[in-house]
Amino acid sequence: MGIEPSTNSSAPPPETPSQPDGFLHTILLKGEGLRAGWRLLVYSIFVAVLWFGMELLIYQFPAPTRGQFSFCFQFAQELASFAAFYCAALVMARIEKRPAGIYGLPAQDAFKRLFWQGCLFGFCEVSVLIGLIALCQSYSFGSLALHGTEILRWGSLWAVFFLVVGLSEEFTFRGYTQFTLADGIGFWPAAVALSVLFGLIHRYNPGETKMGIAGVMLVGLFWSFTLWRTGSLWFAVGMHASFDFGETFLYSVPDSGFSFPGHLSNATLHGPAWVTGGTPGPEGSVFDFLIVLLFFYIFHRMYPAGRASRNLS
Questions:
Q1: What pLDDT is recorded for position 9?
Q2: Strand, coil or helix: what is 34?
Q3: Torsion of CA 141, 146, 151, 154, to 10 degrees
Q4: Single pTM value for the model
Q5: Do 231 and 108 contact (CB within 8 A), yes or no?
Q6: pLDDT tens, 283-300?
Q7: How far apart are the first and last CA of the chain?
Q8: Helix (H), strand (E) counts: the chain
Q9: Distance (Å, whole) CA 217 – CA 263
Q10: What stretches of the chain adopt beta strand conformation (E)?
């Protein structure tokens, strides 16, 4: 009779390969991938390289006279900014094996319902805001500054320009950066931090005030809220673009401290800064704070918390 192999349960289990748990593993990795901070660093490097290359290309063309506004130059700058941030996110999507639309701009939703709802919100915001300022006798439309085909030409140029601004600024502050930072510290801490940064960057605009910066921070939080509820930035892009279009062209008032050429009328703001917003423009008005707070409630009713917000938490 042969000898049966031992089935003693006290025999030591076979050794399994040890998992790396050293210091570098701890600070670099989370689960099976890089931690959020390192991914943001890699993303920033891609952005810097792409942006530098595009700036070199832009500066091959004659530079505008110092101190003057050049529509083409400013448009190229905004387009380069968006292209750098978005293309870097496409590279990260391939590296991280994620669909690029998860960073806030799903291609299948481009210029559909959310975008046009955002445009409507932006138009209502700036129109109600200017209306309230006018009721306080602090806004005058003035005479027309453009006539005939110039109205259509400049209106079309500004519409395209502010669409690119909306895409650029929303994706920069609430696209890949928001998604990845939220993975590290949570959605709302990331949204607050980036909205504060969004406001502080505006302090370099000419004539910017604390109220104007606070207004930018608040609307940044609102746009983060729309992302939280829908999983998309298309609403924020539409609202951002139409509000800026209304300020600059339609109602011809300063936009974040800038007064651009090609505006519809020779409008003026006159009165206390808490009403008019002062040098930054109507976005620093107390009325705008009230309108944006109302928008939080309206959007909450339009898009109750659901699957999109859970996916972003």
A1: 47
A2: strand
A3: -100
A4: 0.85
A5: no
A6: 889 999 999 999 999 999
A7: 65
A8: 12, 4
A9: 26
A10: 29-30, 33-34, 139-140, 268-269
